[in-house]
């Protein structure tokens, strides 16, 4: 093993870790800003140095050999510790900073979070930049680890290796309608006769709305299935419809249009909204500053009562 180490270019360890994380040479190269041939060449050099194939093709992508499965996590841990040591001591001056932060927010998250985060950040750090570089939920951990994004907010699993998280609030669904919608239809008996609008974003927790309506045998009351939440306020403002939406989104919509929120007269699922980041940036001064702004804006205080008028 000593001879293998002597032949190893330590710069290649980043490639090893990226391939292990993404199980794809092309994807690993993309996240390291390497061309596909350069990434393939790096893998070939790693295989030569370790005298082992390291990754072999499987049904779901590349699969690590026993040697790669043993050394990749060790390499990842040391690289993360080194990055944390190098960045943790740097100060952060928001007034002069030109940092460019990349967030991962869903379509709904962009509506709910991005305006407030932008206001909070630019008020103190006017020369910085924000980008919503949204990645699919299943790729969030890898995107944070590879620094494709700095921070993600949403219904996210914080249990991936190296990921840190903070609970912002526990969210619930509410009914939203025009303020003139009949009060009697907001009760359980009347609700069974209303025409419903639900959102069906791809591969998200919000599919639980449809499952709940199925359980109460009310799925046939869905007359509009929107791809995203953004169109729902206009839908219920212009027709005798009821939308089922997250409370935080409904509150924004009710400020803009003559709409009202009221409790769904069914037992609906709740879900946690979390801010997640990678542990390697835990002590980075700029990242700490950004996370603090998000926490100040969105860590929920006392629950707001729903209006029924």
Measured by DSSP, the beta-strand proportion falls in 15-25%
Mean pLDDT: 86
At CATH level 2, the architecture of the largest domain is 3-Layer(aba) Sandwich
Gyration radius, in Å: 24 Å
Q: Give the terminus-to-terminus CA distance.
A: 74 Å
Structural class: alpha/beta
Question: What is the overall number of helices?
Answer: 12
- How would a crystallographer describe the biggest sheet? 9 strands, mixed
CATH top level label of the largest domain: Alpha Beta
CATH fold category name of the largest domain: D-Maltodextrin-Binding Protein, domain 2
Task: Note poorly predicted spans.
Answer: 301-309
The domain tally reads 3
In short:
The chain is an alpha/beta fold and 309 residues long. It has three domains: 2-88, Winged helix-like DNA-binding domain superfamily/Winged helix DNA-binding domain (Arc Repressor Mutant, subunit A), CATH 1.10.10.10; 100-169 and 273-298, Periplasmic binding protein-like II (D-Maltodextrin-Binding Protein, domain 2), CATH 3.40.190.10; 170-271, Periplasmic binding protein-like II (D-Maltodextrin-Binding Protein, domain 2), CATH 3.40.190.10. 41% of the residues lie in helices and 21% in strands.
Give a written overview of the molecule:
By secondary structure, the chain is an alpha/beta fold. The chain has three domains: 87 residues, Arc Repressor Mutant, subunit A; 96 residues, D-Maltodextrin-Binding Protein, domain 2, CATH 3.40.190; 102 residues, Periplasmic binding protein-like II (D-Maltodextrin-Binding Protein, domain 2, 3-Layer(aba) Sandwich), CATH 3.40.190.10. Helix content is 41%, strand content 21%. It contains twelve helices and eleven strands. Strands 3, 4, 5, 6, 7, 8, 9, 10 and 11 form a nine-stranded mixed sheet that branches. A two-stranded antiparallel sheet has the order 1-2. Helix 9 links the parallel strand 7 and strand 8. Helix 3 crosses helix 4 and helix 6 packs across helix 12. The longest helix is centred in the first third of the chain and has 23 residues. The C terminus is likely disordered.
